[in-house]
């Protein structure tokens, strides 16, 4: 059963005549009659009563007509919908992102996207980066906005199944309480908003880190590894903001991405921020991840282009 076959049958019924149906669809009447006979033979039941007054539907023919009308309507609606999707008039995007980037990025990019595509449904999946990589590899996301790091991972690695496109690089800062005794060793450098300090000075300080499995923790461990440090980890938490606030209160020191310092107001918990030497790998990359060899829709490309314009230091071309 094909859409053309259903259309031929429906036209015969609507025109109530083989000759009129053949004329309407521009087919020779004998050819149309043969097509109808083959259809009835394949189904195994007569669809029409042949009378001197023309064709009338059998009971089976009535049921077949109802089915054909529904299927053709569904197929026509689907064609219209595909056309609208191709023209970005409607559709759905499933975007992976972590909860902090969601706060920082989506209020900026989503309004611009929905202004162009107001009928689109947006599904936001908020998970940590390592889980987003898994979801991408499983085909559950259109793309993910996330961070990449050269840090070695102690969990299952999905990166071979994911392509990552860099938007920008963001340095990690060391956070301490204000007036920390080691502040005396900080050095101001040109063009840097934060003074530079030698991380090795903090070897005997207690550290506050986020839980393992989080990308911030991967980078933090990588920084400490490159510095040859194995400090005491006094507190672990799921939230980088909790770690930052605790460090501001003097319960230890921690690492925070510079971009994340813009997410929450810091009036209540003010600390000191220090830049670190890049030789420790104290930088991660913000970017867009897509599954390898996957189809990237025009809607995804539009969203990623807007994201690149708002937050990228370089243009992503997919």
Nutshell version of this structure?
The protein is an alpha/beta fold and 318 residues long. It has helices at residues 3-15, 18-25, 29-43, 59-86, 99-116, 129-137, 215-226, 240-248, 298-311; strands spanning 48-51, 54-57, 91-97, 120-126, 143-148, 162-177, 207-210, 233-237, 254-257, 271-275, 283-291.
Explain this structure to me?
The chain is 40% helix and 22% strand. Helix 1 crosses helix 4. It is of the alpha/beta class and 318 residues long. The strands form 3 sheets. Strands 3, 4, 5, 6, 9, 10 and 11 form a 7-stranded mixed β-sheet that branches. A two-stranded antiparallel ribbon has the order 1-2. It folds into 3 domains: 84 residues, Orthogonal Bundle (Arc Repressor Mutant, subunit A); 103 residues, Periplasmic binding protein-like II (D-Maltodextrin-Binding Protein, domain 2); 113 residues, D-Maltodextrin-Binding Protein, domain 2, CATH 3.40.190.
């Amino acid at each position: 059963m094909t859409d053309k076959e259903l259309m031929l049958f429906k036209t015969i019924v609507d025109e109530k005549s083989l000759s009129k149906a053949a004329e309407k669809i521009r087919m020779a009447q004998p050819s149309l009659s043969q097509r109808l006979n083959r259809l009835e033979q394949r189904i195994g039941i007569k669809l029409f009563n042949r009378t001197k007054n023309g064709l009338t539907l059998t009971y089976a023919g009535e049921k077949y007509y109802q089915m054909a009308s529904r299927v053709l309507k569904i197929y026509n609606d689907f064609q219209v919908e595909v056309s609208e999707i191709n023209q970005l008039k409607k559709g759905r995007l499933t975007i992976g992102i972590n909860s902090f980037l969601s706060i920082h990025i989506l209020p900026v990019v989503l309004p611009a996207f929905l202004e162009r595509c107001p009928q689109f449904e947006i599904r936001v999946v908020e998970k940590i980066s390592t889980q987003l990589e898994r979801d991408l590899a499983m085909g559950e996301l259109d793309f993910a906005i996330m961070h990449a790091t050269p840090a070695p991972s102690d969990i299952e690695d999905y990166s071979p199944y994911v392509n990552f496109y860099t938007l920008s690089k963001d340095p990690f800062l060391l956070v301490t309480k204000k007036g920390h005794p080691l502040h005396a060793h900080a050095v101001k450098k040109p063009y840097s908003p934060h003074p530079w300090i030698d991380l090795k000075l903090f070897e005997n300080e207690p550290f506050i880190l986020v839980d393992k499995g989080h990308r911030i923790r991967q980078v933090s461990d990588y920084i400490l590894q490159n510095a040859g440090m194995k400090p005491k980890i006094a507190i672990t938490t799921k939230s980088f903001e909790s770690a930052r606030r605790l460090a501001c209160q003097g319960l230890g020191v921690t690492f925070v991405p510079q971009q994340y310092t813009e997410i929450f107001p810091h009036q209540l918990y003010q600390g000191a921020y220090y830049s670190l030497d890049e030789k420790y790998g104290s930088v991660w990359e913000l970017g867009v991840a897509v599954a390898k060899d996957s189809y990237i829709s025009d809607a995804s490309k539009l969203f990623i282009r807007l994201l690149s314009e708002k937050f990228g230091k370089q243009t992503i071309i997919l």
